[in-house]
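Human:
Care to share another protein and its fold?

Assistant:
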Amino acid sequence: MGKRPRGVEGLDVYPVGSLAEAVGFLSGQVDMEPESIDLEKVFRQLSHMEEDFVGVKGQDYAKRALLIAAAGGHNVLMIGPPGTGKTLLAKRLPTILPPLTPAESLETTRIYSAMGLLKPGQPLMTFRPFRPPHHSVSDAGLVGGEGKGVITE
């Protein structure tokens, strides 16, 4: 059985498992029904995140700043000594970002797939991507100039 389509609404999709099956379908020798998808179900199943913003105790000013930034689509730069919770908060930031729309999900999935970043078995990006910069990133790398040391994944 071939790969199943994900996230394509309003389009007839006929998944095939082999080239012979595709030729048979296109020549009219093999009958198939188009496959449909329930996007809401896919989003419910795949949008669970391990760490949650709710689990952060204290840090009221920092949490408020992150909530405002997430709601308004603003950038955040956290500065402080080691052990103050910057990484803890940053890892949980994606859990308070607005959910992806289906169109945003498809666009993000295409980018991640083309870059080879889509995880095995993950048919669709269902949450906003977040990639924290490495602590050694340069100023130019942080804003997208250098490309060295930016991604920690």
User: Anything to note?
Assistant: The chain has two domains: 1-37, 38-142.
